Amino acid sequence: MGYVKLSLAMLFFFSFLFSPEYKNEIAHHFNNLKEEHFKAVAIITFAQYLQKCSYESISELVKNVVDLAQRCVANKDDLGCTKSLQAIFLDEICQIKRLHDFYGAMADCCANADPERNDCFLSFKMTYPPFLTPYQRPEPDAVCKELKEDRQSFLGHYVYGVARRLPFLFAPTILALGDDYELAVQTCCAVTDIDVCLERKIAALKEKSTEMSLWHEYSCGIRKTFGERTFQAQKLALLSQRFPKAPFEEVYRVANKLKGVYEECCDGNMMQCMDNKARVVEYLCSKQNVFSSKIKKCCETAAIDKGQCVVEAGRDDKPEDLPLIAGKYIQDPDVCNHFAAGHDKFLAEFLYEYSRRHQEFSTEMLLRIAKGYEDVLEKCCKNENPSECYGKVEEKLQSHIQETEATVKTNCDLLKKGGEFEFQKAVLIRYTKKMPQAATETLLEITKKIAAVGVKCCQKPEDSRLPCAERYLSIVIQDMCKKQEATLINDQVACCCNESYANRRPCFTKLGVDENYVLPPFNPDTFNFDETLCTAPPQIWQENHLGMLINLIKHKPKMTDEELQTIVTGFSGMVDKCCKAADHDTCFGEENTKAREPTVS
């Protein structure tokens, strides 16, 4: 499998207790967060499970939990205080009258025992669900007035609105966004052109919250699909790049602590998520001189804002005097002895050393490099002359690095030359050949997202393109693989989705035409064009154009690029010709007949 294997012994070597068995868990969190933040996290928790509920309905549930918390603080031996806080939240949900009328099958989750009950509820969460209207910003005067007159209601409505639209976004991030929102409104209410100011700042917050939500959902999906070892290795690589001056033991310690954060956050246990995240941040802040000078200002901010600030602080500069990695891991004649004596620790240290030296690489590529190194040692250490065998590993690793960098450059050059639409078209042709069984809507959605990744990442400096591209492509691929889980696309797609986390992107890049694809029966209406093409807005025209390409490839997946280009050119010429003709319908009718002939031949 394409990840660094970390033993259970290593996983717990540096661990500390993350989820203590509090006898009175609800009182602990109430005392720890204080009433204002406890209420806010309760709003977030309920809103993420009950995305259809009004703010008023959520507030009633929150009041019930707060009342219980206050009783439990006063009397820790109260019978209602011994339940886990997550069970208390789910019990409140399951006591809602007419829950089945509002939520249908989700109400059946209540019949399960925990933790299956919680897993069931989590499966119904949906980002930007279709039953919610897009966020409508209130009138500037109303926003300014609400903040001034009732700050708690102002922030409560904001975190509620974000949480129900982004149910995978972690509570610490939502609270930090709430502080950003409050500051934005305060700033804008003090200027003349309030409306323009709010429009700009709120749009930036929406983009930030959506991006963070995608990352949280993606990370939880990777943890669920590939397990703790892969997740741990990915975090180790990421942290090694971020804190290149910190020693291995400290970086590994934090990577292990993050495991506990994601465990609770991904399970929707937002109170413990807050607790665990705060512990990690406090640990980092207690050792600023060890980790990074860039987190100093973050550690001086309010507790709620520290975590997000640290996330956004960026990478520290790598030490200038780092020795070449080859000395210890390639040239040392005792490499095989070190590998045999402490296989997992040795590989984890290799990943750390390689990552801190290469901040320009994606974490996915770093994991592929570590796996490639492991494979070479597995083979060479059985050889009569192991050092001669593994001495060539650097050439093999460099070959993969150059191949990956060339792929990024080729795609960025293609985007620069043809623009976003032509780039999407090229990607769509590739992916329709790889997975012709996928629905047209799925292919359009995926390739549009891939084109957007190109636009976002290709404009970055060269040393930032690769980590940007593989990070966002990995999120797109994860979304595609979730669709694959629900409805099988084909075996080669399933293989790329499930075999190796780090190798997913290269696997999809190398996929060819699906040889097991069965051609669909020909439907003449598939290639039926009419005068609506003459008046269609550019976006609709482009979708029709791409839809035609998809249908064409679905019927002839082995068509060459030259043949496709001939048909595409002919399609554009046909539209131009018929839209200029006196009788559009007659012209399109004649051309439709001609267009079908090469398709069915």
Automatic annotation (TrEMBL):
What keywords were assigned to this record?
Calcium, Disulfide bond, Metal-binding, Repeat, Secreted, Signal
Q: Which PROSITE patterns match?
A: ALBUMIN_1, ALBUMIN_2
Record-annotated Albumin domain positions: 14-206, 207-399, 400-597
Q: Where is Ca(2+) annotated to bind?
A: 25, 264, 275
Note the SS bond partners: 72-81, 94-110, 109-120, 144-189, 188-197, 220-266, 265-273, 285-299, 298-309, 336-381, 380-389, 412-458, 457-468, 481-497, 496-507, 534-579, 578-587
Principal subcellular localization: secreted
The entry's cellular-component GO terms read: blood microparticle; cytoplasm
CDD domains for this protein:
ALBUMIN
The UniProt record lists the keyword Secreted: yes
The listed locations are:
Secreted
Task: Answer yes or no on keyword DNA damage.
Answer: no
One term of GO molecular function: metal ion binding
Using the record, list the residue span of the signal peptide; answer none if the entry has no such feature: 1-19
* Protein name from the UniProt record: Albumin
Native source species: Crocodylus porosus
State which gene encodes it. ALB
